Amino acid sequence: MPASARTIAELARAIRSGELTAETATTDCLERIAERNPAINAYITVLADQALAQAKQADAELKSGRDRGPLHGVPISLKDIIDLDGVSTTAASKVRHGHVAPHDAPVVARLREAGAVFLGKTNLHEFAFGTTNEDSAFGLVRHPLDPNRSPGGSSGGSAASVLDGMAYASIGTDTGGSVRIPSAACGLVGLKPSLDEVPIGGVFPLSKTMDHVGPLCRSVEDAAIVHDVLCGRAPSNGSPRNVNGLRIGVLRGYFTTLLDPQVAAAFETTCKALTAAGAALEEVQVPHAGDIAPIYLHIVLSEAAALHAKTLDSHAEDYNPNVRLRLEMGRYILAEDYLRALRGRDVLIDEVDATLVRRDALLLPTLAVPAVKLGALAVKIGSVEEPVRNITLRLTQLFNITGHPAITIPCGATTDGLPIGAQLAGGRNRTGDLLAVAAAVESLLRPNPSR
Amino acid sequence: MTIKTWLDAAIQDADRRNLAGLRPLLEALARSTSALRSADWNFDATGEPTRTSTPPDAR
């Protein structure tokens, strides 16, 4: 196993046992970046010198007895929409040309204090406004397992960096699924925390009422480690759960009617495995699930258009044409329709809350299709042809609207080896409980996450 | 404003701004807005009851 394919937890143990140092772990990642990034294009900016200096400092601190915790000396990447002091935050757009972050975003400051090593800034769909990573001023990102496919987005460079051994974890953002979609497509664990749990200051916004910051990792344990740091709290080591006795609501109807057959099969296999292990699975419905897409669209377009109005007028030609048109679309939404969508949000919050009464979590697929082919505009499932954007957002955007925490974990693969993800969602402001459930489910589906 | 009136005005404005590529997006948005407006949870001034509570079968 290459050193850079370990989990954070494994690396932390290896560093403390003397098997590895932060410097060697960082060097391994930088060598992997040099080897693979020209083909994958996961990174926009690589900070080799700074990362090595940080790693050496981390080693020196450990030697002198200062241990900052499980992220001490761990090399990670940051989606290039998050401010890192003194480094450009491009948001993958020419519009941001010349920008240099004046200070760390609060989440970066917390990671720095925890001893994380910053390898660089990763590629994304321009302004995080898309799910394939094809629209970037720095070129598209390729899936490490199939260069003709997208790794998903918008945090596609982040996912590719972790899958391909170019980082131990990455910090992404999720406004409609941008952490969970690429994590599912790349066989990773991706967490969207509860709304407002992790600060979004210093992160270029897309939709201020739906933006979240979350980690893309190789295991649920790693996601919990990073999430604790992002929240600014000490490692919580939440109460472990056992699959036996878990009460899980399985979302059907809208959530399972339009699935690639191999995704559907992997999901049903997951449900059977959980039942066989003693979990109590019960079918549940979100009565107004059919309204999710219109509600999401009217909120995200209105809020994104307001944020971009000035530069749409002054720098229109600097936008990717596809992203520019979607932003322009938002400028035509009427206030009354935006307010209808906000009303719809309240309805969906109540309905998701209701499905969680006396249950530990909800279970549904994360991504209705495996990683999509680059250049595809639509995906055909049976006789239905859906635009790529619609089908990729279909199962994740609900929890951005409602703010419930949600996590994707790998649950299988297609016959071509493309990963498939299962999604768990939990009660609002109960991300720790959700992580404990996810760890139990992961231990059943995938006992050795780094292998 | 009806959706048709809104869509006609939006397309006219987009054409004026040389954003012809917006037309199919605006047409898709109009379908989405139509779905939004026809949802049974919308408040309006007719005084007709709106559904605000979750039906028991969701629990």
Describe the structure in your own words.
The complex is a heterodimer of chains A (451) and B (59). Chain A contains 14 helices and 13 strands. Chain A has helices at 8-17, 22-40, 48-63, 106-113, 156-163, 180-185, 220-231, 261-276, 292-314, 321-330, 335-355, 388-393, 398-402, 431-445; strands at residues 43-46, 75-79, 117-122, 170-174, 189-192, 212-217, 247-251, 280-284, 361-365, 378-381, 384-387, 406-413, 419-425. In chain A, helix 4 crosses helix 7. Chain A is globular and about 60 Å long. In chain A, 61% of the residues are buried. Chain B is an all-alpha fold. Helices cover 51% and strands 0% of the residues of chain B. Chain B has two helices and no strands. Chain B has helices spanning 3-16, 22-37. In chain B, helix 1 (3-16) packs antiparallel against helix 2. The radius of gyration of chain B is 17 Å and the shape is elongated. The model of chain B is unreliable at 52-59 (pLDDT under 50). The A-B interface holds A 284-288, 290-291, 293-295, 297-298, 301, 321, 325-326, 328-329, 332-334, 337, 340-341, 343-344, 347, 350-351, 353-355, 357 and B 1, 6, 10, 13-14, 19, 21-22, 25-26, 29, 32-33, 35-37, 39, 41-43, 52-55, 57-59.
Output the keywords.
heterodimer, A: 451 residues, alpha/beta, eleven-stranded mixed beta sheet, two-stranded antiparallel sheet, B: 59 residues, mainly alpha, disordered C terminus
